[in-house]
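Intended use. Records such as the Sporulation-control protein entry shown here are meant for training and evaluating sequence-to-structure methods. They are not intended to support clinical decisions.
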Amino acid sequence: MFNKMLSSIGIGNTKIDAQLDKQSYMAGETVRGKILVTGGKVEQEVDQIYLSVNTKYVKESDDKRFNVNVIMDKFKIAESFTIQPGESKEIPFSFILSPQTPLTIRDKNVWIDTGLDIKKAVDPGDIDYIQVNPSQLVNAVLKAVDSLGFKLIEVESKEVHRSFGKLPFVQEFEFKPRSGQYKGLLDEIELIFLPSEDQVEILMQIDRKARGLSGLFAEAMDQDESYVRFTVTNSDSSTVQETIQEIVNQNIH
């Protein structure tokens, strides 16, 4: 009876440890691993084992900014079972990391939360941060922008009030011209990637540098910004730099 009471407050309870095959993935890749379950001091009934993919984004309210955690996906790994005192179970798992998973270029902002549901006890959990790299197509776009003389300044996930999918945020990539033909002509460009299985839709904001009184007036009226929406596919990966350059050139003046 005393051991059951301790388990109900998390002392001597069942423990879990999620072990991933690796720590670095591309968005859209399959994540594989195993969950080790170790029984505590008393027999316990486990209702389910679940994995969730989590991230965070910035929300603004009343001129204040704060981070919000969000579950992107949740997967049920195992049905109910009984774990005996000291018993060990090993449960393999696999799931596909959503193509919309934010990239971890500047921040550890994606983690996998593993949990057990146990009646009348504290539910044990385990958190593992992972690195999320761009897909080959998104990487081709990032390299193309870099080759055009832009430097990546900031990457941030921000709340959106219109739907770009099932998620309440988008990840913005801000670039400033460091060299080349756009230095002195543009203040910055911002990119948002909306990837799917074999293509990426791109939202681009082009911010022109103010030149003279007319330029300052346009900047004050937010008329110095252009917004472009276009799509690149896997077959476009070799020509994506030319595509982006053409779009930027069309929106400089």
